[in-house]
Every structure is written in C-alpha cells, then in structure tokens.
Amino acid sequence: MTEPLPTTDLKQLSEDALSALQVLDTSDPGAVEKWRVEFLGRNGRLTTVLRGLGALPAEQRREAGAAANSLKEQLEQRLEEKRTQTLAAQAARAESLDISLPGRRMRRGRLHPSTQIIREICSAFNEMGFQTVEGPEVEWERYNFDLLNIPRDHPARDKWDTIWIEQPESRRPPDGQRILLRTHTSPMQGRVMERQQPPVRVIVPGKCYRFEATDATHEWQFHQVEGLVVDEGVTFADLKGTLYEFARRIFGANRRVRFRCDFFPFVEPGVDMSIDCFGCDGKGCRICKNSGWIEIMGAGMVHPKVLAAVGYDTARYTGFAFGMGPERIAMLRYGIEDIRHFFSNDLRFLSQF
Amino acid sequence: MKVPLSWMKEYVPVELPAEEIARRLTMAGVEVTGIERTHTWNGIIVGHVRSVRPHPNADRLRLVTVDRGSAGEIEVVCGAPNVAEGQRIAFAGVGADVIDGHTGKASKLKAGKIRGVESPGMVLSEKELGMSGDHEGIVVLDPAAPVGRPLSEVLGETVLDLELSPNRPDCLGVLGVAREVGALVGLGATEPALGYRESGPDAHSLARVTIEAADLCPRYTATVIRGVKVGPSPNWLQDRLRALGERPVNNVVDATNYVMFELGQPLHAFDFDLVAGRHVIVRRARSGEKLATLDGVERTLTDEMLVIADPERAIGLAGVMGGANSEITERTVNVLLESANFHAVNNRKTARGLGLASEATVRFEKGLRAGLAEVGLRRCVGMILEVAGGDAARGVIDEWPGRGNEVNEIFLTQQRVQAVLGVEWPAAQVVNTLRSLGFEPVPALAAAGGQGAAMGDRSASWSVRVPYWRPDITIPEDLCEELARVIGYDQIPQTVVSGRVPRWEPQAGLNLREKVRDALVAAGIQEMISYTATSERNEERVRLSEKTPGHVKLANPLSADWAVMRRTLRENALRTFSDNARTWRGPVAMFEIGKVFLDHGEGLPEEREMVVGVLGGLRSETHWAGEQTRLDFFDAKGAVEAVLEALRVEGAFSPGADSTLAAGRVAAVTSPRAGGLRVGIVGEVDPQVMTAFGIDAGPVAMFELDLEALGKAVDASRSSASPYKPFGRFPASPRDLALLLDDGVPAGEVLRMIERNRLVASASVFDVYRGKGVATGRKSLAVRVVYQAADRTLTSEEVDAAEKSILNALSSQLGAELRK
C-alpha cells in the first residue's frame, strides 16, 4: 500500500487552514475557537498528521515533525495578524478622524507691528547695556528744541514742522516757554542728562508728532527710538561700531552698513546710517530706489553745546546719539506700502503680523 | 539748489561722471537727490546755414542749405522768418526725435515733400526741441557752436539737484559746491578773479552809507558804477540763469543774481539817481511804513523790519527784496551796488511775516559770514562792467560795525581729533585735508593755546583760520567733522561702546505695561495703536464723566478731527470696533495701551497710561464644531482676570456704574490688598453709546485699566506674600452642593463664604439655573467644593461637619437652602 506522504498532507492542511482563516470573522470568539479546534486542536488535523508520523522511518519522521511544528507556528501567527487587522479596521470604522478639518484654535492676539519692532530695537540695545527710559509726549520747547541747539527762529527748526499746544498768555511761564507735541524723542536727551551724571546709556522709544499732511509715506504721528551714550572716552568709532552691531542684530549678521555725513543741529559730526538693501543685496531695486542702500537712522556725536546746556564738562565727556523710526523699519522689512495702515487699526492689516 | 555741471567745472576741472560726483558729495554731507539732464536730444546736431533761397512754390517758405560737418551739406525746407545765412542752428535729420510744432507731440522726423520740394530734415524751433512753447522762429545758436556735433554738447546741461542742510549756505553757490568737489577729488578749486578797473572817482565821494541798526546789519559794503548801458544779458549769462530756473531780467540785475548763485552772497542794485541825497541809511522801518517791493505789491512794515532807505523814504526791504522806487530800468545810467550782511533771524522773520520768500532770504536766514559781503561786491562790480559797461568807482564803501564778532580762528589739537573720532590721523594728513577745504591751519605753540598747554602733551596743535565762506565752523568738533567727511567716514574704525555701564534704575511702570500687553495678547486680544488726538465732538460720544479734567488743545491742528489730545482711549476703541465689525468676519477683540492727556491748568498736562479693551461679535469665525455664541461681559472680565493673574494681583469685582457702560452690566475692579484701590472697570457698552458709534449688533464688552493703579496693586500684593505655598500631598475630597438662593444674591458672595472654611481648598460655580422646579425669584446654584488639609487625609466625618457648618452659614447669612 502507498501511504500518502505526510508532507503532502501538511501542504493540503496549510491551504485549507489559510483559506478558512481568510473568511474567518476574528471578532467572533466562537468562530475563532472553532477554527483553532479544527486545525490546531488536540484532535485537530495537525495533531492527526503528527500522530501519523510514528509510522515513518526515523529520518523522515524528524523532517516531517519539524515541518509540522513550523506550520503550527505559522498558522498561529497568521491568526494573530488577522486579529490585529480586524481590530484596526473596526477602530477605523468607529473613531476615525478627518484630520484635514481645521483645528480648534487657542485664540491668541498679536502685538501691533510697531510694538514688535520697538521691542526688537530696545532689546538689542538693552543687551548692550542701554536702559529703556521714556518721556512726555506733550513737551516744553526747551527740551524739544532749545537744549538741542535748535534755537527759536533758526532755519534749522524747519526740519521739524511742529504742532503747538494752545497756551493762553496767562499760562506762559516767565521765560516765554511754549508747549508742543514733541517732534522727536530727542527731548529725553536733556531730561536724562539733567537728572544724572555720566555714564549715560539709554534707549528711548515713544510717539512723536509733526505738522505734516499725511500720505502713503508721511504720517503726522509716528514712533521713534532714540539712543544716547555719554561718558569719558566715547568716540565716533564707538558710534560706528555700536550701530553696526545693532544693524547686525536687527537686519542680519551679513548686512553691510554705510555711514555718511549728515546734519542735525544737536550732533557734530553728524551721521546718516544706511544698510545695504535686503531686497536686492545692494544691487538696486524698488525698495532702495535703485541706490542699493536704505537709510535707517540719523546719528552723530553729541554737540558740545548740548552737553554744556545741561552742565556737563565738555572737555571731559563726549557722547553719541541716534534715532530711528520703527514704522519705517517695519515698512521696509514687510513691504508695507502705506504708512497710514499703522494707526488705522484695520484687523485685516494688524492680524498679519 | 541746482548746480549745472558745466558751470561748476569752470572752477574745478573734474572729469568724473555726474553719478560719481553726486555719490561723493552725498557721502560728504552735501546730499545730491537727483541728476537732471536738461536736454538729451536724439539725432539733433549743430548745423551751419550755408545759403537761403526762396521756395519755388511758396512765398513764406524757403530752401535752406545746411552744413552738417562731416555728414556734408543738405537742402531742407524752412518756414521760419528768422532763418539767415551764416547762422548756427539746431538741425534734425530723418529719424530724429522731435516735438511736432503743431500738435506738441513727440514724433520721429520723416522725410517728406513740402509744396513739391523734398525736405529730408528740419531746422528746429524751441518748441520742436521741447525747450519751450516758442514756435515763432528757429533757435539761433552761439556762432562758435561746433558744426556737426550733437546739440546736447552745446545746449545740453547736466544739473545736480542738491538738498542742503541749513548749516551750509556756502553750497547755495555753485562755487561752494565746486570747492567741495575740489577737496573730495583732490583737485582744488579756482577762485574767480575779483579785480576790476576802477576808472571812476572815489566811491566815498559819490555816496554815503549810514547804519542806524547795527544789531541787524553787521556789515554793509557798496560802490557806484556810472554810465552803464542797461539791456538784455549776453546769451551765456541768460542760459546760466535759465538753467537754475531763474528768469533773466536785464544785464545789471542778471549780474547780481549770477554772483548770488555763484558765491551765495545776495546783492542788490539800486538806480543811483533815484537814491535821494546819495545817502543810504540802514534802519528799522517805522511802524506802518509802506513800501512797494519789486514784485509790485505794496507792503506795510513793522518796526521790527529792517529797511534800506534814503533820507526821504525806504527804498528796499533789507536782504529780502528791493523797492520799486529805486529799481534798475532801461533808463538807469548809474548804479549803486549793495552787498551786505544782515541778521539771520530778523531777516527770516521779516520775510515770513510778509509771506515773501526770496532767494536772498534763503541765504541770509542761514547766517552768512560778513567777509563774504565784500567778496561778493567786488565780484559783481567786475561782472557788471563786463556785461553792462560803465565806470566803477575807486574803492568801496565798507561800514562794518560787527567786525570782530565772528569766530575766525579755532584752536585744534591732534588729541581732540582723536578724542572725538577715535582715530589717530597723522598731523600732515590733518593739515592737508583742512587746506583742501580752504582752512588755514597754523601750527600753534602749546603755550599759545591755554588748552594745549594744560594737556601738557606733545600732540600737534593748530590755530585754524576759517575761510570767509564757512559760517558753520565755530568749534573744534566742526573741524573734526570736516576731517572725517573728506577723509571718509569709512576710514574710521568700528569699536563697540565699552567702559562703564550705568547704574541700573528700576523701571516698574514700563515692565508692568509690557506684562499687561503680553497677558492680553495671550488672552487672544489683538493690540491696536490709534491717533492720540481727536475732536471734542467725537469724544463726547463716550460720555466721559463731567469730572474729567480739561482738554489739551492743539494750536495748529492738522484737521478738525484732530483738534484736542484724547482724554480717553474708549473713543478710539469703539470707533475701531465699529470699523472692523463691518469688514472682519471673526470676533473683534482688541486692546490699546496708551496715554491720555489731562489738563490740570498749569505746566505740562498729566499723561496717564491706560489700557482699554473692546470685545464683541461671534466668538469665532464659523467653526465646524462650534456652537455660535457672542463675546460678552464675561469675555472682557476673563481678559481682566488674565491680566490680574499675570501680575499676581488679587482683584475684586463689585457692581459699578459708568456713563459709557450699560447700567447693571458693569463691574468695578478693585484691589483689596491695596485698600480697595480701584484699578479699572469692565462692562457692556450702553446701547445709546453703541448707536452713536454706528454699532448695531451687541453686546460690545469693554474693559479699562489704569496702569498706575495697577502698579500700586502689584506693589501691595508683592509686599503681602510669596506666590508659593506648599501644595497638599493628602487627597482632596470634592463634593457638590446644589443651593437655592434669592436671585439677587451674587454667586461671588456664596463662593467667598464657602472659601472662608479652613478645610476648603477651592470652590467654583458649575451651573446656574432658574426656571421649572425653582421658585420665581430664586435660582439654583451648583457649586463644587474641594476639601483638603495640608497635614492629613480628611475623614468623611470631618468633611460632613465642614459642609454642615458651611450650609449653616449660607443659610443664616444668605438665605440659602440645600436643593433636594
């Protein structure tokens, strides 16, 4: 008689078990148990095959035994896989998320762009030892002009078109001092120096006002950030190095900086600082009006008359001052075309920063 | 100031491109804002009219043979009445760009037949060249114009447009700019000749000058030129004036203007025969005195104005404009020429007071050096003799009461240069640079200058003589700038400021403000910044309390909408809310931190920093998972709570009243630790106020905080306790209570009372219910109470006892009963 080879039986068994597994509902414990009993159970088909091995020669028996054990492991593994798949599919049916739907936002407001730039500027200088101080927006002429070597009726004042405060004669102090909306943050130079001796190292942010018709590039209200350093041994080289360091921090480490001569009555020598245009890297574009350079701030060595006016010893002390406009910097950096956006408070503008 | 390059090059033979000249000037502080090329014609050359003959078919046309130089001769048709043989003219060949004489439009010239005769070109009028509207005749060029060369070489001009700072009136003369360029390119500038033939009698024998107002006229120089022939100026002079946008008048007046534009010294020529008594008096005007100025306007003067007068009347407004009564006309034969120095501020006030802007005032108001007056006078005499003839008097009249008042010499040490600039330049470089600008540095012995001696060093020092054209150089620092800008700002090293860092001073207010800003942003509110000025009428809409101090009023407001400084931030907030509600679909939640200005009647106004927030609209832009609710009182209150929490300030909310806010929907915010100090207010905007701002959908919630009061609350909280407490390691027992209360009992009272029990860690309201099952006028409050002790686990008996004691208290004091 010819016994069917156990290996043939095993192959058949494997095919039968796998096809049964395919249609098996693994979420039904009864059905799973039934499948297990039929193929792997104590009286199942695999056991039957193993039992039949006793009739075989030793070598064949060993071989077939190994094959049967490996099949057992394989079938158990496939059952486990099927179970996992089913669970996943079930979970997917029950709890799947459309992760493309918008998230539930933690609402967060934004700082006004001017605030953001002012903070950047101030913190760059704070790190260099400058302390932030502030002063009044409604100011005496003395601080806004007189102490800054901008005498009354001098054409130098033309640069600062001024909004004056109504001041009945009865309210004029004996020296005839007038009250105005400060045209720059520079009045704080006098105020700071009057109340302390050198060393002085301050940064002054704040609102300023000019009598100026508004258009896309002019505003009658704007911010300015002023800086002042006074001590023994402060030089023009320090001015250059400090402002260069500032420019690197604000505009990027690789920016080039240009200093040229300019005039402000309260400094001597006077400086205009530009950076190479970040729109075109100095090649010339719309932002820099093809010059390759963007003017960022005015600066200079504090005029000896300014130091003398607050009683500082001009032979002993020197200093430098500088001032810049955060709105201008924001406009350049973000490509904002109209300065009037800043104080119109349109959420379509403010929400972008 | 406009500077034609051809004119400038008369003094300095610079061959650099205009762009490079402009760049160097700008870097050195003489800012060039534009380069204009007045005429850049394409295809138009200088032609020479060889012959003119009649047109065979037209009486008014002629055939003109034009020599084009190397291009040879050509015959064209010409209709101009003034064309004549031998003229140098502007010739356009076929293809040249011209302006059509009839339509005024730019076009390319085409060959054509005119009345049967071929005309492959054109002799051009000013209009066809685009120079003016003149189409009466052709342009006749200088007889020396080189035939065949592009016309732009003869008529073309490159003009630098300068934006000068007020300290450099010397650059309001072409020579001044030439001196700058000379120093910057290392060429030096040639000064114009000042000598002339003095063929007349002594000036002092012809005229007399008396300065009565020496304070307003530091120097007056004058002389007389007799026998001039007044007429049009030569072309070159007219062209130069036109290039600057000046209208030529006559040769004498043009000469004075020319010298003003060359040297920066304004001059005035009087018809000497109209000066009564041949006596010039410089005096203050009499109050109400009248003078008709050259522009034909009769002006009423004040006694603060300076006039030039003869013994009978005023004949000119000093340094502003001449008088019509002594004007140079075609009948003028003898000229009195004035070149003076006037007080800058007085001159400016006079010109402004009369609304009379003149080129003279543009210069005088900046403060000219007295030394320039005599140079200007001598230069102008020579110019008048050249263009109008005549005999100049011998010598000049020179009244100089202000002599010695100007700074002429500055003591400069090498050490000062180093102290200011931070760079050590060799003495020779310092000397050469100063000389290139016209300064005369003379080595000074240390003993000669007290300052140098005191320093006791061996550094070089100089006494530097300032050239007569520079009024802006008065102190050593001015010389430092001169050195730096000519040698180059880029030649100075860069060193970050070092040395002493000032003592740190606390800035409590500033830090507090920035914390509040951050807290509000984190709470989801957008920061805004508005204009600080408003109008009284606009401000009325928020119905400020009548006790609010007065307005700071602007004397010269830009518009009626910005006539006063704001006394509140509320108005801007509501206006902004209204604007955004129209254009923004999401929630509108915004805040501003800024100053309000309160006038207390003397000195500067109070500037008080306030915080205002305004919230309204749908809580979120339509969200797929969201129920749509509107922002309300509790959002504003939440924002205030967020601020207080960020500042670690305990706040109390109590029913309040405010004229902007709706009655019964307002809470005053106070700080119990600061003795109940009021720090702000929160509420919903009154419907009438909303209407005033055109807001139709409510509620609009608003909060306002006073930063100074908040600061005090922070101080009070800081001194009271550390925020840290050891947290309970023993388990907490939460229990819920459902309480029935009268509707008017505030939930806050209930919570405060519960929290008074020492075993209670916290209490919070999780439901408020009115309606079915609760008697009218009563409400049900569901409160979660958490019991916890720091040192043990509470037993349920302990919690029961605590709860019972709480209920007793609630019942006896607030009339609460446990809901069954």
What this model shows, in words?
The complex is a heterodimer of chains A (353) and B (820). Chain A has 353 residues and is of the alpha+beta class. Chain A folds into two domains: 7-95; 113-350, Bira Bifunctional Protein, Domain 2 (BirA Bifunctional Protein, domain 2). Chain A has helices at 6-23, 29-40, 45-51, 58-95, 113-126, 141-144, 187-195, 236-251, 304-309, 326-334, 347-350, and strands at 131-132, 138-140, 179-181, 200-209, 221-231, 257-261, 267-276, 293-302, 318-324. Chain A has a seven-stranded mixed β-sheet, sandwiched between helices. In chain A, strands 2-3 form a two-stranded antiparallel sheet. In chain A, α1 (6-23) packs antiparallel against α3 and α5 (113-126) crosses α10 (326-334). Chain A is rod-shaped and about 130 Å long. In chain A, 41% of the residues are buried. The model of chain A has no long low-confidence stretch (mean pLDDT 88). Chain B has 820 residues and is α+β, with helices and mostly antiparallel strands. Helix content of chain B is 27%, strand content 27%. Chain B contains 21 helices and 40 strands. Chain B has a seven-stranded mixed β-sheet with strand order 28-31-32-36-35-34-33. The radius of gyration of chain B is 42 Å and the shape is elongated. The termini of chain B are far apart. Residues 447-457 of chain B have low confidence and may be disordered.
Radius of gyration of chain A, Cα only, in angstroms?
42 Å
Q: Care to count the β-strands of chain B?
A: 40
The H-and-E topology of chain A, N to C, reads as HHHHHEEHEHEEHEEEHEHH
Chain pair sharing the greatest interface = A-B, 90 and 95 residues
Percent strand of chain A = 15-25%
Biggest sheet strand order of chain A reads: 1-4-5-9-8-7-6
Largest sheet of chain B: 7 strands, mixed
Task: Output the structural class of chain B.
Answer: alpha+beta
User: Which blocks of ≥5 consecutive residues of chain A have pLDDT under 50?
Assistant: none
Q: The CATH topology of the largest domain in chain A is what? A: BirA Bifunctional Protein, domain 2
The outline of chain B comes out as elongated
Largest sheet of chain A: 7 strands, mixed
The overall pLDDT average of chain B reads 92
Please tell me the overall pLDDT of chain A: 88
Q: Could you tell me the number of beta strands of chain A?
A: 9
